[in-house]
Design a protein that fits this description.
By secondary structure, this protein is mainly α. The protein has eight helices and seven strands, in the order ααββαβαααββαββα. It has one domain: Jann2411-like domain (Jann2411-like fold, Orthogonal Bundle), CATH 1.10.3300. Strands 3-5-4 form a three-stranded mixed sheet. A two-stranded antiparallel sheet has the order 1-2. Strand 1 and strand 2 form a beta hairpin. Helix 5 packs across helix 6. It is globular, with a radius of gyration of 19 Å.
Length: 211
């Protein structure tokens, strides 16, 4: 049975409005289940996702094509590094959400990444701004994501980052931009509607039982 968190079926506005770091973290579905669902299982899938989210690896299409085939020197190492960064960002944001001290190793790992990675470059291409990795031969494409995460952790919206309260174990992160700061679900069109429907049916059952 297909997951209701299929990224291809979700409304673009549900995903595009979130920060780059949040979108990257949410490439794992069902975070609060024992068995999560990986949406970036290969280097090619990661490169496709980066391209779709405005992170351009190289201006050289031939280089990018070779990367999708996994032939860059150290490509798989770079892929593993990107996934490790994603999980580190997730752990740090969840610690912030729960108001607990993060694991020191996670903080150190994130800082090492920021320290050793060269700066990414901003470029105007195809009518919009995007990030361009500065060292495509090393697949150095995660700097924009790390920057996004650091700004989110330290900026004015740090306290607005929340985790979906769906009882199935969704676990996606989102930024609560509501005035009342009472948003509970990653998407009202998905987990929110399901929760409302569940409460509605529960009230009906209670009424029938009471009668």
């Amino acid at each position: 049975m297909g997951s209701p968190h299929n990224l291809k079926k979700r409304q673009p506005t549900d995903v595009a409005k979130e920060d780059l770091a949040i979108r990257f973290v949410n490439t794992v579905a069902w975070r609060l289940r024992q068995a999560t669902e990986e949406r970036l299982p290969t280097l090619a899938a990661l490169l496709d996702w980066l391209d779709e989210n405005g992170v351009r690896i190289s201006n050289d299409s031939a280089e990018l094509t070779r990367g999708r085939g996994g032939h860059f020197q150290g490509a798989q190492t770079a892929y593993a590094s990107a996934i490790a960064l994603r999980e580190t960002i997730y752990a740090l944001l969840v610690a912030q959400i729960r108001n607990v001290s993060p694991v020191a190793d996670h903080v150190q790992a994130f800082n090492r990444f920021l320290h050793h990675r060269p700066a990414a470059l901003l470029e105007w291409r195809a009518g919009k701004f995007g990030w361009n990795g500065s060292h495509p031969n090393e697949l150095d494409f995660c700097t924009p994501i790390a920057i996004s995460a650091a700004e989110l952790m330290t900026g004015s919206r740090a306290g607005r980052v929340k985790q979906c309260a769906d009882d199935r174990g969704c676990g996606w992160l989102f930024i609560d931009e509501s005035r009342a700061q009472n948003r509970r679900w990653c998407s009202m069109g998905d987990c929110g509607n399901r929760a409302k429907a569940s409460r509605h049916y529960a009230r009906i059952r209670e009424t029938r039982t009471g009668n």
